[in-house]
Amino acid sequence: MSAAADLRALKLQADAVPATALPVRVGIVEFVRPNPNEPVLDATTHALVEAFGRDNVHVAYYSLFGLEEAVRKGEVDIFIASAGFYIRMTPWGVRSLATVVSRNYPNPNGNDGTLMLVRRDRKDLVSLEDLRGKRLATSTPYAFTGLQVPNREIYAAGYDPDDFFKHIRFLGDDDKMIGAFDLLEDGEVDTAFFRLCLFEALEKKSPERAARFRVINEQTEPGEACRRSTRLYPSWTAGSTPSADPRISRLVTRVLLQMPPAGESGLYWGVATNYSEVDALFRDLRLGPYAYLRSWTIRRLFDEYGTYVGFVGLFVCGLLLHVMRTSRLVQIRTAELAQALEREKHLKHEAQAANDRLSRIEKASAVGQLSTIFAHEMRQPLGAISLYAFGLKKRVDAGQYDENVFAKTLAKLVDQAARASQIVERVRTYAKAGAIKTTALDLTEAVKRAIDNLRVTGRAQAHIAFEPPQNSVSVTFDALDLELVILNLVKNALDAVKPLAEAGRVTIRILNNGAREAVLEIADNGLPLSEEGFAALSALRPSQKSEGLGLGLAIVRSILERHSGRLTFSRCETGGLIVCVYLPLAGGDADRDGVEQSKA
C-alpha cells in the first residue's frame, strides 16, 4: 500500500468525525535559509492535507515572538519550531509530538548544533578563548542554534556570553546568513555562527571558497556527516498546544511518524525522549523558563539560595531554642556539679582498683605465655638428652666401651644441655623484657642443624629433601630463635605427612625474593587441607593435634615478629602445604638499625 493510501486510511479512522469537524491550524516559525530541514516542511504539509483534507489544514508562518503569542492565545493547534522554542513554551502546556531526524543524524535527542567559522588566515584565532572581544555575525538575538547554543559553549568555557563579543551583527532570518561568508572574507567580522551542515553545502557548491575558512572549537566525532563546534541538541520539534483537540494531536502524531523520508538527507519524524540538554542550556544562560534568574526576585532567591535560606532559618530557630535551653541548663548544671565532683572521686577510686586488677591479669598472662614457650621448646633438647643417655646406658649394659663413641655422645649431651640452658635463659630474658641480640647467621647451616636434631630424636621419619642454595645466605637473627622457628615448621610438615608413611616427603628450599629478604620455603605432600583447616592456619589459631600444646605456630609468629620477619601459607594443587618464612638478610635495613633489637 502506498504512503498516500496509508494517509487516506488514517483520514477514515478519525473516530468517525467528519473531516470538516477537525480543522488543523499549523504554525511554523520563520527560519534561516538554506536549512537542511526545510524539505520536511513541504512533505509534512502534504501529509496533513492527505489526512485531514485540503480545506481543513491551515498553515501560517510566524516570527519567533509571533508564534509564541499565537500559542498563548490558542490560535494554533500544532507548531513546528526549534527544540529551544518548545522548551520555552512548556510552561504554557505545550507537548512534543515528534522531532526531525535524518539519515546522517538518526538520534532524535541529538541532531542539531552550530558551527563557528573564522577566516583561515587569521592565525590569532585558534581557540574559543581567542574570540573574546571580537566581532560576530549571526542571524537573530533569539535564534536557538544561531546564538543560544554557541553561547552555552562560551558559558562552559568560563565566560559571560552577554559580555563576550565586542560587537554582534544580526543579519536576520530567511537567506540573509549567506552574507556572513562575505563579511568574514572582507574582514568586517571576525567569526560567524552557522547552523549544522550549512558549511558542507558551501563546500559542495564552492570548495575553493570554503577552503578560505576554518572551524573553531571543533567537536565533530569520527564519521560524523557535518562539522560542528557545539554539542548536539534535538532538532525541529512538532508540538501540540493546549487548545488542540486531543483527536487532532493523536492523528497528527500518527501522520508524522508514518511519513516516508523526504529530501536528499532522508528527513523524517522521530520521537525525542530527552530534552534535558535544552533545559540545561536555558538554565545556564538564564533564558526562557529561567529568565527570572537575571533579576533579584523572591523566586530567584529561593531557587538559587533556598538551601542556604533554609539553613539560616533553622540556625536562627536553633539559636532561640538554645538560648531558652541554656537558662534552664545553667540551673541543672549547677545542681549537678556538686554531684559530679563527688562521683569523680568515686570513679578515681574504682579506676585505680581496675588498673590494679588489669596489672595482675597481665602478669598472669605473661607467666602463662612464658610457661607455654618453655614447655613447648624444652621437649626437643630433653628428648635428645634422653635418647643419648639411653644409648650410652645400652652400651654400658652390653659392655661396649668405645672411647670415641662415648666422647662424641657425651659432647652431644653437653650440646643439648647447653641448648636447654639457652632456652631457660631465653625465657628469663622474655620475662625481663630484655633486648634480643641478633647476629649474621648462615641460613643453610641452621637448616642442616635442625634436620640433624630431628633425625637424632627420631622425628624425621619421612624423607626430607633439602636443596641448599649455590651461594651462602646470611640472615640477621638470634641463633636459638632461628633454630626454634625451623624446628617447629619442619616438625609440623613431618606430622602432616605421617599418614602417607614412606610416601611422605618434605622439601626445604632457600630463596631470595629480591626485597632484602631471604625466603625459607618448607613444602610437604600431605593430605589436602579443608577450607576451615586452612583458615585456622592463616588465622594462626591453636591446632587440634593430639600431641603438644598446639601453640607452635603462634610461638613461631611471635619470634618472627620480634625479628622483623613474617610467615605465609599456601596450598599445593596436588595436596599439602607450602610455608614461606621471610627473614631479613644480613646488612638489610633492619640490620643497619643496630645489632640489638628491642623485644616486641
TrEMBL record:
This is histidine kinase. Keywords: ATP-binding, Coiled coil, Kinase, Nucleotide-binding, Phosphoprotein, Transferase, Two-component regulatory system. Its EC number is 2.7.13.3. Residues 337-364 form a coiled coil. Pfam families: HATPase_c, HisKA, Phosphonate-bd. It is an enzyme of class 2 (transferase). Residues 373-587 form the Histidine kinase domain.
